[in-house]
Design goal:
This protein has about 350 residues and is α/β, with parallel strands linked by helices. It is built from 13 helices and eight strands. The chain starts with a helix and ends in a 10-residue tail after the last helix. It binds S-adenosylmethionine and iron/sulfur cluster (SF4).
Length: about 350
């Protein structure tokens, strides 16, 4: 019974949040509908393409993260995603995510899956979606991620999550040398019931001074887009929405940051408490500090107009499309959230 009540409460919050977005868009307003909480920049891996662990520094306490969640929930937050570095390195990560869930928020976690399996029962209780990185078949994944056995943990985590009806997705970073892994990763998605997302590798992705330069030739974006489109046509389990695939095909000229809804309806809380629209907009931004100003106020102070040539960061683009009311992006997000769970759970 309590599961049904919990589910209904979150569904109502989602509907109410949607109505509020409509109203805010009509009057040019903003509110934090969806926020990513980077719990730490620390990581137990050193993946080839990732420079996040080098940014590890001060982190808020559990009480401070909970305060951020409370304040943003009071300001209308509907969805809280958690990421890192490797968020599960923090022993209080599950407590913080559980707090978000108790507030009636939709929750998701990005993880390299190394530590997820041992906590899978608890994660299945507090998450709506678990997103794990999968960089290809075993030899490639373990090589890129410099950790033997990590592919096996990803697969074991996908299986354990499925057994607990926890929705999962994979995200695969693509560069010129591993385009061919896409087909194998899509086949694994069919097998494990997850959705597969693909992310072009960015040069210094999280070095925000160089961030906009994807550093990949146009043919890679075109090839990725063509493969995704084909998978879509075949009805395979790719997460990308058709409009994102169109944007990807334009690479490396994706669009214009001024029209993006980052900072209007979604944003990021950094480990030490600063609030930013997205990490690519961090450069040149005197990012407001949530601990000093309050987190809702820090979000409100984010600049309305952003400059930049757009990006191909898959979760950002899919989120932006949702706030542009792209029907297929919204359907894809709901389908992903519903995942292995029925939309209306059986009475317990
Ligand atoms: C920063 S990680 C954090 C979560 C977790 N540590 C993991 O590996 O999934 C989130 C995603 O960013 C991706 N990522 C890291 N560096 C990247 C880069 N240079 N270009 C594109 N994606 C990158 C990772 O592969 C991962 O899927
Ligand atoms: S991609 Fe994830 S697992 Fe790999 S080093 Fe970066 S934060 Fe760590």
């Amino acid at each position: 019974m309590s599961a049904l009540l919990d589910h209904s409460r979150r569904a109502l919050r989602l509907l109410h949040g949607g109505a509020r977005v409509l109203e805010a868009k009509a009057r040019g307003g903003s509110f934090p509908f969806s926020m990513t909480f980077i719990l730490t920049h620390r990581c137990n891996f050193r993946c080839d393409y990732c420079n996040i662990p080098a940014a590890a520094d001060h982190e808020m306490t559990s009480a401070e993260f909970k305060r951020a969640l409370d304040e943003l929930a009071a300001a209308g937050l509907v969805r809280a995603s958690f990421s890192g570095g490797e968020a599960l390195l923090r022993r209080d990560a599950r407590e913080i995510i559980g707090h978000a869930r108790a507030l009636g928020l939709q929750t998701s976690l990005n993880s390299n899956a190394w530590l997820a399996l041992e906590h899978i029962d608890e994660l299945a209780e507090i998450l709506d979606l678990l997103v794990v990185s999968l960089d290809g078949p075993e030899p490639i994944h373990d090589l890129v991620r410099h950790r033997k056995g990590s592919y096996r943990r990803v697969i074991a985590t996908l299986e354990a999550a499925r057994a607990r009806k926890l929705a999962t997705a994979t995200i695969t970073v693509i560069n010129p040398s591993n385009l061919d892994v896409m087909d194998e990763v899509i086949a694994l998605a069919q097998q494990h019931g997850n959705y597969a997302y693909f992310q072009p590798a960015y040069d210094d992705c999280f070095d925000h001074h160089k961030g906009f330069e994807a550093g990949l030739p146009a043919r890679i974006f075109a090839d990725m887009a063509a493969r995704l489109q084909l998978a879509h046509q075949r009805g395979e389990r790719v997460g990308a929405s058709p409009r994102f695939i169109e944007r990807l095909a334009r690479g490396p000229h994706f669009g214009d940051c001024s029209t993006c809804s980052a900072g209007r309806f979604w944003g990021t809380v950094l480990p030490e408490g600063r609030v930013i629209p997205c990490h690519l907009q961090e450069a040149g931004l005197d990012a407001p500090n949530g601990l000093e100003l309050g987190f809702a106020e820090a979000f409100r102070r984010l600049p309305a107009h952003k400059r930049g040539p757009g990006c191909a960061i898959s979760p950002y683009q899919e989120t932006d499309l949702i706030f542009a009311f792209d029907r297929e992006a919204i359907t894809a997000a709901l389908r992903r959230l519903a995942g292995a769970r029925p939309l209306i759970p059986a009475r317990t």
